[in-house]
Amino acid sequence: MNDRALVPDDFAVPPCLATPQFRLEPLGPQHNSADHAAWTSSIEHIRATPGFPDGDWPPVGGMTLEANLADLRRHADDFVQRRGFTYTVLDPAGGEVIGCVYIYPSRSDDHDAEVSSWVRADRAELDVPLYEAVTAWLSTDWPLGTLNYHPR
User: Fold this and answer.
1) Which residue from 17, 46, 99, 147 could staple onto 24, CB 3.0 to 4.6 Å apart?
2) CB neighbours of 118 closer than 8 A, spacing ≥ 6?
3) Using CA atoms, how far apart are residues 73 and 140, in angstroms rounded to an integer?
4) What is the pTM of this model?
């Protein structure tokens, strides 16, 4: 996205968010197979989710596991460099990947940060609770200012 840090150097980036319905942790290469399976099983559902109508992601034809791994490595590097923060959404009981949350600098002057999230089609009932929990978390625990996060 860009090379500027999204948060101040002295901000301790939260390592997780846990609720009874899901747990967030930083997305990384270790999630590759599960992440790939999660989004490729739900392409139409994700594309219909508020915040994903641009038609760029997820790719209709999917992508290889190797290309997905490169994407996860980029997100993990952004996290380390504090340029953006991508969290995988996990089932708290079994640890399976059920979605993803992206927190990046805004591309417009109207907002400080762009936030988007998706859940698998078979976990669609978690879309609103995820949106509400992430919105509250970002508003209380992060120094982000105004958010562009499409309501559910």
Assistant:
1) 17
2) 39, 42, 45, 46, 49, 52, 99, 100, 127
3) 28
4) 0.94
